[in-house]
Amino acid sequence: MLTSQEACGEELLEAVVEEIGGENAYKVVRVLLEADKEVTDEEIAEKLELQLNSVRKVLYRLYEERLASYRRTRDTKTGWFIYFWRIRPEKVKDLVLRRKREVYLKLKERFEYEKNNMLFHCGNQNCPRLTFDEAMEAEFKCPSCGERLNYQDSSESIRVLEVKLQELEEELKELEGRCEKYLLERNALKSLKA
User: Fold this and answer.
1) 27-53 burial string, b = 16+ CB within 10 Å, else e?
2) In this predicted model, what pLDDT tens digit does every residue of 80-93 receive, in sequence order?
């Protein structure tokens, strides 16, 4: 997972794109970023000397994550569709924030579970921890290995989860601010070029 220390600019874009589309993804994105207009998948493949299928695979993954968009037209000579692609770097923020929020919600759920339940465990790493009700139903014997279940103090886990949740909250706030600044700078540069 990306940290908020990474700038919400080229570094973040590169990291996100490579995570989504693999090693050639950022090369594809660079072509799209450098183009003054929409670019076809064939043009990208030719410029990067990559197979058309691998370029399309990257583009479709970027599209699924809303980082790329396309316009489709029909070639009047061949009848085939031509796809004109463009990158949407402003959507990187949304994607990163969405993923960080998902992690935050999962950790929050785990925190609440740890905080609100007495947990029992046999000591075997491969066996699950059980709530008090589950342990009582199993007569305080592990349903997996048959060993005796003992109370497991969750205070350290709760403390660690609480710290991680606070860190994630701060990262989310910081990332939102950095991305807003980056987008404002990027839009200002675009308007200067126009």
Assistant:
1) bbbbbbeeeeeebebeebbebeeeeee
2) 999 999 988 878 77
